[in-house]
Amino acid sequence: MTECTQSSFGFHPLFRREVVAQFDGGDITSDAGGLLLREVDQKLNLTPRLAACFIDHRRSDKIEHRVEELVAQRIYGLALGYEDLNDHDQLRSDPLMGVLIGKAEPKGTDRRRQQDQGKAGAGKSTLNRLELTPEKADAQARYKKIVYRQEALDELLVDLFLDSFSQPPSRLELDLDATDDPVHGNQEGRFFHGYYREYCYLPLYIICDEFVLCARLRRSNIDASAGALEEVKRIVAQIRKKWPEVEIILRGDGGFSRDAIMSWCEENGVEFLFGWAKNKRLLKIIGKQLQEAKVQFEETKTAARVFTEFSYQTRQSWKRERRVVAKAEHLEKGANPRFVVTSLSAEKMEARALYEELYCARGEMENRIKEQQLALFADRTSTEWMRSNQLRLYFSTFAYQLMQGLRRLGLKGTEMEQAQCQTIRVKLLKIGAQIRVTVRRVWFSLAEGYAFAKVFAEVYRNLQGVPATG
Prior knowledge:
By secondary structure, the protein is an alpha+beta fold. The protein has two domains: 28-148 and 384-436 and 443-464, no CATH class; 151-372, Transposase Inhibitor Protein From Tn5, Chain A, domain 1. The protein is built from 16 helices and 19 strands. The protein has helices at 34-44, 46-51, 67-79, 88-91, 95-100, 124-132, 150-163, 228-242, 259-267, 280-285, 287-300, 351-359, 364-375, 386-410, 421-429, 453-464; strands at 8-14, 17-22, 28-29, 54-56, 146-148, 171-178, 181-182, 191-193, 198-201, 204-208, 211-216, 247-252, 271-276, 304-312, 322-331, 334-335, 338-342, 433-437, 442-446. Strand 12 (247-252), helix 9 and strand 13 form a beta-alpha-beta unit. The N and C termini lie far apart (62 Å).
């Protein structure tokens, strides 16, 4: 039977004119806004520093894709919305990808094998080997020879944050949170989590403002605070090495109000503010305030809040008394008491401001986690092994930091300066363009009908004024 490949597509006519489509436009990309991401990358020196966190045991005379090019391809792919390695079998043929990852010949005309001609980037198999390399691989390994160094990647996340400041800040709030990362196969480390009612991982995030300082993949059969103190210790040490005098406040929900964490903070000059679960003793202490809030609600028919504070010590788990702030709230559905425990004194911040202004502000980190999971595919941890899934989480995190850099450096002062990553991708990165490669230039003829050309120009001007990180 003859195999027929359709090359022309006829659509409903436009009055007297036929409407016909063909894939004959030449080198055209749909992601030309990625050039702005490349400028951000150049300013942050991100992908070269990321590549330095890997050890490459391959023979230099046998490779066509440097580590820097491989990690850049993975990062740019995620930022542009391509979550699967399979996508790269098509993306590798896009000259834009060749430009983004720094190929001398963005159209792949210098590839060694005939079958690779016209494909500047790496295919899914090469990228897959990058992700699946075992920790102890060496030059004798057969296929997987590029080993990532976890401690170096962790350090780089904090360095990107430190480099964003032109002068030392007076105070930093580090937010801790755990979230669910559903798994759908027989991955290493999978467990059923009763709270989330699913098989999942339980990654730990530490975030300051919009910067992810830690993204640690963990099994889900653990306490939410497991390993948090170790991560806090290294991050605080790295921050204070550069800024010894900066005030640091740890914030988290009740899952992190553990005596070991609070005691370490008290011994090392770090303030803390954690949620604290209610119990009968606590409810009895604030009984008067709960009644007062109820009376106010019955009079006004609107939510009523009464704040109080007291010194408190658990009967077994705490080594000492600590300040507890209570919110006695009454809503239409009834009493809604909340408690936080803190090392901050009443002189530094009174009870209402402590809860409403400082503690509640930690909710913003949840938006950052959702943004990374939904827009940068942080939950795409579908390999068999935890180590390779951790690397995928790293790639997602650095892709997020690249997008966050675009928002922070490029979109400042524009109509999109508060836009989330998905909006930035759709409105600023998804631009059609024809690509022409000559001896001296790579030309991108952007679509004249692009709706956000003004914003694009503003972002470009903003980025040109940003000094590069050394």
